[in-house]
Every structure is written in structure tokens, then in C-alpha cells.
């Protein structure tokens, strides 16, 4: 194969240049300002040829080539292919048109609530938040810069089930001594304000799935008689982002499976909200390193979960404010 990779197709497999059109999703919404929908530029032909070569490489060939470029070599074959394709595409497009590094979020705020639960998850059971963790990911350094964790005292069902204690590691004594949700939310907002999120620095929220915001936070706000906080109305659902970016089915986007496919082990105690959040942040870091532009893809509107289009403008969350009480 031609180009700076000098990739060689495997013996006996002739190279075929197939008709190829890079979609908006594949370019993560980035298009050339000169011709936003014109892919006739020769650079896209080069990228298409190289993608074909990468598709025919063995796992060992992929790892060798990634090592040559000093890139991460862990992960399943599909992850390695995506990593190599994105590296090459980024190099070619940067030559063509430098990327404006100021347009992306400065921080991503990862949240993974723990809530009261019963064995078998009966449908009528009302979940209350009992742990509110935050992990602050700096998108410039690609490092976890800070963390927040507070436990929450449940009010409707103040006694935790044995199943809940065993699953989360949160004991009855811990929640008995904790503040109620409105006070913990006030502490969260103060913590975010001290880090100048939404004022000096742009940021967005990120979750592992839709439930944290659309179910747990939404339900908890109703229980606590407060309006839904504006800073949490839009977020990145990393499961959707991961599935779209690495082209894997939804059943392969559970936290432990995502880590495994990226060649990483879970670090800490599963179902600890803070440890789950840290591991979700590790996945986000690896995706950003692999060239994925994580974008808001879900939102709450009039109490309903909605999808946000990948072509929507990239906007940060507002400066956090304590929501008003409601009857």
C-alpha cells in the first residue's frame, strides 16, 4: 500500500480500491471549511486506500504498526484497527487543515450514581441516590485531575437492603450519617464552582448509559421536591459513543466488556460509584487518545430522555446553579 504507512497487503490478497465515502459520523462531525461535503480531495482517497490496507492486517501486524508510531498496542483487533485508522486520518487531515484545539470541552465530568436497590430489581421499587461521585477529566492533559464523593441519606426507604449493602459496599451506618440529597447537591455545585466549570472552563457531563440522569437523578429530584439541575440536562452516554466509534453491538458496551476490549482491567471495587466513575474516565481517556471526539449525545427535555444529533453544535454545560424547590 502507498502513503506514509507503507502498509503491505497480506500475500495472495490483491488490493482493491473500493468506492468510499467518509460519513459525518466517521469524521466525528469534522468537515473541511473549504468544502464541507466535498470528499473529492485526494487526501480522502489516500485515507480510503490506507483503511483498506489496515482492514487486511493481522492483529500482530496492527500491534507492530501501532508500536512503530508509539501508540497503545492493547485491545481487541477491531479496537486496534480503529486506533490505527484514526491516527493516520488525523495526520493527513492536520496536514491539510490544522485543527482548532480551542473548540473542544476543557473538562469532562464523569458521574456514576449508586442508588438503593432490591434483589431482582422489582419494577415498582423507587431508587434513591446513596452515593454522588464526580471524576474530573482534563481533556488537554488526558488525566484525572480531581474527584468528589459524598454519600446520601435516603428518605423514602431509609433502611438499605442486604442486597444493596453487598452490591455497593455502602453500609447502613454510612448513609445514616450522610446528608440528604439537596445538601449533597449543594456541595457538588460548590465543588464544581470552585473549579470554575462553566465560567472559566467549558465542560460537559458523561455517564455510563442513560439511567444515571434520566432515571436516578430525575427520580431523586422529584423525591426531594427540587427542579432538575440545568447543568445535568445534556450529557455524553459513553456506551453509545463507544459502540458508534468502535463499531460494536450494544451488548458489548457494558463497563467491564469495554475495559476488556481496550485491554484494561477494572481498577477498584465494582459498584463503588467513585471507582466505577474512575474506570469510565479511563475508557473516555483511551477513546480520546484513539481519536474519538466524545460529544453530547443525550439530553432531558420536559422530563423525557431525548437523543442529541452528532451534527448538533458542540456546546458546554452551563455554570452549575442550585435548582429551585418545587411543590
UniProtKB/TrEMBL annotation:
Entry GO CC: cytoplasm; nucleolus
The protein's required cofactors: Mg(2+)
Domain of life of the source: Eukaryota
Known catalytic reactions: Exonucleolytic cleavage in the 3'- to 5'-direction to yield nucleoside 5'-phosphates
EC class (word): hydrolase
Chain positions covered by the region annotation Disordered: 19-38
This protein's UniProt keywords: Cytoplasm, Exonuclease, Hydrolase, Magnesium, Metal-binding, Nuclease, Nucleus, Phosphoprotein, RNA-binding, RNA-mediated gene silencing, rRNA processing
Keyword Magnesium: yes
Enzyme Commission designation: 3.1.13.1
GO molecular-function term, one example from the UniProt record: RNA binding
Pfam families: RNase_T (PF00929), SAP (PF02037)
Domain SAP residue range list: 54-88
Gene3D superfamilies named among the record's database cross-references: Ribonuclease H-like superfamily/Ribonuclease H, SAP domain
One GO term (biological process): rRNA processing
UniProt biased composition (Polar residues): 25-38
Cited PANTHER family: 3'-5' EXONUCLEASE ERI1-RELATED, 3'-5' EXORIBONUCLEASE 1-RELATED
Name of the protein in its database record: 3'-5' exoribonuclease 1
Lineage: Eukaryota, Metazoa, Chordata, Craniata, Vertebrata
Amino acid at each position: 500500500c502507498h502513503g506514509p504507512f507503507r502498509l503491505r497487503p497480506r500475500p495472495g490478497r490483491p488490493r482493491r480500491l473500493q468506492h468510499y465515502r467518509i460519513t459525518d459520523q466517521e469524521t466525528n462531525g469534522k468537515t473541511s471549511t473549504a468544502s464541507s461535503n466535498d470528499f473529492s480531495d485526494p487526501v480522502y482517497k489516500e485515507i480510503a486506500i490506507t483503511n483498506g490496507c489496515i482492514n487486511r492486517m493481522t492483529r500482530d501486524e496492527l500491534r507492530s504498526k501501532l508500536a512503530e508510531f508509539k501508540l497503545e498496542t492493547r485491545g481487541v483487533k477491531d479496537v486496534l484497527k480503529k486506533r490505527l485508522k484514526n491516527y493516520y486520518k488525523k495526520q493527513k487531515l492536520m496536514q491539510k487543515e490544522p485543527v482548532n484545539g480551542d473548540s473542544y470541552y476543557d473538562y469532562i465530568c464523569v458521574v456514576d450514581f449508586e442508588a438503593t436497590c432490591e434483589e431482582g430489581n422489582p419494577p415498582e421499587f423507587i431508587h434513591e441516590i446513596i452515593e454522588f461521585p464526580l471524576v474530573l477529566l482534563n481533556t488537554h492533559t488526558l488525566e484525572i485531575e480531581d474527584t468528589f464523593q459524598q454519600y446520601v441519606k435516603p428518605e423514602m426507604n431509609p433502611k438499605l437492603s442486604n442486597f444493596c449493602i453487598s452490591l455497593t459496599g455502602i453500609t447502613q451506618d454510612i448513609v445514616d450519617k450522610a446528608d440528604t440529597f439537596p445538601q449533597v447537591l449543594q456541595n457538588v455545585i460548590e465543588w464544581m464552582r470552585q473549579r470554575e466549570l462553566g465560567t472559566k472552563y467549558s465542560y460537559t457531563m458523561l455517564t455510563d448509559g442513560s439511567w444515571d440522569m434520566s432515571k436516578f437523578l430525575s427520580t431523586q429530584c422529584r423525591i426531594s421536591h427540587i427542579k432538575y439541575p440545568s447543568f445535568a440536562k445534556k450529557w455524553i452516554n459513553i456506551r453509545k459513543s463507544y459502540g458508534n466509534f468502535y463499531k460494536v453491538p450494544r451488548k458489548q458496551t457494558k463497563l467491564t466488556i469495554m475495559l476488556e476490549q481496550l485491554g484494561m482491567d477494572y481498577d477498584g471495587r465494582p459498584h463503588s460509584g467513585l471507582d466505577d466513575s474512575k474506570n469510565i474516565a479511563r475508557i473516555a481517556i483511551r477513546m480520546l487518545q484513539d481519536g474519538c471526539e466524545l460529544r453530547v449525545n443525550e439530553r432531558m427535555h420536559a422530563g423525557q430522555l431525548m437523543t442529541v444529533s452528532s451534527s448538533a453544535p458542540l456546546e458546554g454545560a452551563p455554570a452549575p446553579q442550585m435548582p429551585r424547590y418545587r411543590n
